[in-house]
Fold each of these.
Amino acid sequence: MRISAPDGLFFWKKGALWGRLKGKEESILKKIIQVNERPPLGQAIPLSIQHMFAMFGASVLVPTLFHIDPAVVLLMNGLGTLFFIFITKAKAPAYLGSSFAFIAPALLVMAQHGSPYADPLFSNPTPEQQAQHMEAFAYAQGGFVVVGILGCVLALIIYKFGSRWIDIILPPAAMGPIVALIGLELAGTAADTAGLLPGSGESVDMRGLAVFLVTLGVAVLGSILFRRFFSVIPVLIAIVAGYVLAAVLGIVDFTQVNQAGVLSLPHFQLAKFDVNSILTMVPVILIIASEHIGHQIVTGKIIGRDLLKDPGLHRSLLGDNISTAVSGLIGSVPTTTYGENIGVMAMTKVYSVWVIGGAAVLSVVCAFIGKFSALISSIPGPVIGGISFLLYGMIGVSGLRILVDSKVNFDRARNQALTAVVFVTGLSGITVNLGDIQLKGMVLACIVGMLMGILFYIFDKLRISNDLEDSAA
């Protein structure tokens, strides 16, 4: 019997050649997409959108708290990310979003310079009051610029003297819990964003709870059950599913979308410099440096590379801080590598800088599209909280993975002490005040871990440790 062309094609597809083609496709869709791999455009676009959504909620929260134009923040986040990729020779996948470390000192600086928003009950400013506020914010920008420059100086010091000192002051027994704390200390933020921590006398909104559970459920089950290309975009699918349900339940506010123009220009303004404002902001360098090192280490563990050596801590720190300095100079907020996007990489195993760069380009485009920016801004808290709930947990797990992969020997008393003290310090709520700067959580735990690491190193050099004969871990 003669086989027709369609039937022949059918049987041919069932043969070995079709199996090889299918296997090749699945290797792209199901396995790891490495740092320098360039996915096809049809795959790269939704993957980039997923990263943009992951950072968007947290990144625009900072300009919202500062009462400034979020469009300029989207623009500088995107440009900063592209510059970071360039500086790190496209070897360190990271998205630069708005830094939370500067919020407290920046609000203090703005209050010192007469911002009307220093009154928590203030709203609906007149044009004159808004101009006064932006004048106050300009002095906070000056602090951002100086801290960014100091970060660049630190990068040059690391370039000159190397980064081996990190292994001494932050051994794996300390670094593991520090990295875990990056995610764990944000757990409450995720729950609060989702509306799961109501105030006294209030109750959880059941509509918000439903949206939170659907968003989280789709993300978790999707990462396990989805196949082919859908298996690498569970976060994006979860956000869409949560947003649709939120709209159906009536908890999406479309007011900003209706009022926004189709196209808009970001608001720029130059920084102003004041000694007191700068001194208030400078101690933040301790926070962003420890945060950056932690993010680079956890990203390196996720992608299976030592980013502190290649492209080098000096390059990633330089790219991050140049972005901060330039952003502050022209009216935006400081940047930092984002834990949300690290969590996306951990979940999807898509590490491509092409995907990260695509998200940066989309962020730049969104900065000029008023309607689209407003639409993304309308994503309600339960959706963002649902995704953050999972992503922050993934970061915490990555910290525990450091302990496992480094084969930390907990028979050694020093390792037990390091891990125990760092964890308890970070989770205890202890706060150390240095002027107007508060050290607590992961940052304080990092400093404590460093001091203990240095102390143990001195003990070893003096040969007074009781476990010198044991293999280091």
Amino acid sequence: MAVDFRGHPMFPSTGFNAPTRFEADIYDCEVWGRVPADIEGNFYRMQCDFQYRPPENEWPTGFNGDGHVSRFHFRDGNVNFRARYVKTARLLAERAAHRRLYGVYRNHYTDDPGVKNIDRSAANTHMYWHGGKLLTLKEDALPWAIDPHTLETEGVWDFHGKYKATSMSAHPKIDAQTGEMIAYGYQAKGDLTDDIASYIIGKDGRVAHEVWFKAPYVGIMHDIAITKKYILFPVVARTTSDERLKKGEPMWEWNGDLPTMVGVLPRDGSARDVRWFRGPARNTLHFLNAVDLPDGRIVMDLPTSSGERDPSQIRRWTFDMRSRTKDTFDEEVISTANGVLARMDDRYLGCDYRYCYVGNRDPSLPYDQARGGNMGGRVTNQYLRVDVRNPKGEPGKYFAGPVQSLQECAFVPRKGSRGEGDGYLMGIASNYESLTSDLVIVDAQRLEEGAIATVKLPFRLRSGTHVNWYPANELPPFRAG
């Protein structure tokens, strides 16, 4: 049966977020402005795309599409673009059948019986360079490695056979001071299990430390945070059950009656050292940073909302590790920025820091509906630089324009810079008028001055999941053939 997306509730007949379904190479991209000479490296971007029509009741987040990686390669002021699908076992099986074989999000009951023993991973959420591998990640399976230059798929990666969990989340953390990757899996012994597996992986890509422990309930654990001393594991009140899956529904549903639970594990600790802290139900997936305070407390900053559909804010959770009896965390709002994807200068991850960079929708800024169409308020029209040490101060602001919407940005350090925030922001801007995508480059210390350079693509990219930047000196040289 030929592919036909018409009438699917996730894909309006005309719209920016319809499946793109192509791979591409562009040599010497069109650039408006001038790319700074000190930008040399690779901006990687992931999107969930759909080769085949999903079930009608698919989770509307779109997180069950096929992994599609883009690479913008910067050298000598020039930019090359490449986009490839991650050729997972799942995608190849569906291509062989010419149809969708996997059901709704993380529900094996809805899969075609013929793929029971084929890896479900779509490798569609994030990508990290570590231990000589560019890993594409999806939280219900092991990573798939791809070539950092060609983006061709290399295969499943299990860290030399020493990673024993059945899954690895898409949000490991790289400690810039030690080079270690702190990774984890939840539902780590299979769907609906309450097992969590924590791993510290040396910069050589080999497992150095492994801890297994139990979650207080089976809830989503999409991200973690680290400090110099601890790993923080939030369990969020988006939960599931075997009964729900047998009804044919996507895995997750919101349950505001459940608390947020945060497990705190010393980085060199064992299962008996985990402490659980309780707080009110909060809807959050991504975390910004965490820091050890001199007095023994931990603070963790993150975008979060009070309910399933409430506006997001950047809040600070504080955990008192000095007390053996206090099992709740404190919360305060540090910014009303309403974006859900906040980034920082990753060289300061787990350390005392000052700035975060987050998308924001400011309804007072102009949006030209006649040119861009009715987006129903779903426009991220700013990047903000928020000073987390002085949250009442005025943030730096970059306005994308009257028909653009911004996706997640990455911080790109200026070559040779040592001070926090000395560098650039890069992120995709969706142009709803032309139905094309741009990569904008903004000075992170002078957002108000606008884009320094804009890399123009002659087509659109769907809304992405995540991005990362890796300078040229961190990757191996390209070897043709």
